[in-house]
Amino acid sequence: MSQYYPIDGTSSLIYPDISAQNLQPMKPLKLGVMASGNGSNFEVVAQAIQAGKLNAQIQVLIYNNPSAKAAERAKNHGLEAVLLNHRDYKKRENLDRAIVKTFRQYDVDLVIMAGWMRIVTQELIDAFPDRIINIHPSLLPSFKGVRAVEQALEAGVKITGCTVHLLRLEMDSGPILIQAAVPVLPDDTAETLHARIQIQEHRILPLAIASLAAR
Amino acid sequence: MSQYYPIDGTSSLIYPDISAQNLQPMKPLKLGVMASGNGSNFEVVAQAIQAGKLNAQIQVLIYNNPSAKAAERAKNHGLEAVLLNHRDYKKRENLDRAIVKTFRQYDVDLVIMAGWMRIVTQELIDAFPDRIINIHPSLLPSFKGVRAVEQALEAGVKITGCTVHLLRLEMDSGPILIQAAVPVLPDDTAETLHARIQIQEHRILPLAIASLAAR
Lengths: 215, 215
Description:
The structure is a homodimer of 215-residue chains. The first copy, chain A, has helices at residues 40-50, 69-76, 92-105, 122-127, 148-155, 190-213, and strands at 13-15, 29-35, 56-63, 81-83, 110-113, 132-136, 159-166, 176-183. Chain A is α/β, with parallel strands linked by helices and 215 residues long. Chain A has a single domain (3-213), classed as Rossmann fold, CATH 3.40.50.170. The interface between A and B is large, with 46 and 47 residues.
């Protein structure tokens, strides 16, 4: 009786959308980035800066996994990358202290967790109060935790998305800066849905950094 | 450093959007509607039918509150309205049995809870398996319960919305049919946010009914 006309898979709702911002010649925000894996969010931040869309500079990338592709991306951009292998630290606190020390050495203002797969401690949070942002692949508060995309599929939601928020000790909580919503299509797998969400992550992460830079 | 250009307050993402459906000349779906208050969702369903956008007919409205504006709306449309005052029933089950009896008398196929403010029981759910739909003012599974809009504001989310789902005994759960996402604007109160969500409720409720009519 009816036919479905699914909207384009990349249709989305982003709020707030500050992409029309005017960049003023101000002192650029000094970023420290943390990544464990592919580093695609690190890449989009680096590219947004290079394209003059983000008044910031990446001081250093910290990665915890020797094979993280993020490190290679840093090299390609001529950016500093420091390996802090979590296997070298007996306690989470010790790793976080090393992270804080590194960020201080590199004079970092704002910390970006761009796919950091380790649980962080109060050591890190206290060192950068309200200056650590995280990106999570769901419309928080729905679907916290590492299986966010799978959980959204299992729950049968028709709309999910991603959230950039300030980090708090409780996982995937903290004040929300920007969210983006995308549809869950009938044939989605975790992979196709995650890919659609990541397109939006790559849009809202630079916007969130810009909104903090504007404060 | 940057300026916000908030998107239009009524911008939204709806999925699935079957508004481009082709209505075929089939037997119309016979609806029973339950409402406790204003009945604006009842109104949009009645109007969608009148406008030929929905191949259905409203057999009867049940309302539980003698002063419900929904009853007046039914009268204006020349539709049957039956008052089943919850104060006349000692147990929830007894009220639900009266509801089921009424819907059977009026030969109802599909039950629409359009702002029904009473907790329902298994009596009602078992009588119309997978044939009762509810509309809730949040992107479920976030913000279940009667304070959904206030909770979204308190949580500081930037995107919320509404959900049409099949009714299950556990409140605000059950298979999701359609969702719509809207932004939460900086100056929103519960009233302004609820009004923005209701605009989307009025869009997705007829779509959800159409999608079931098409099965």
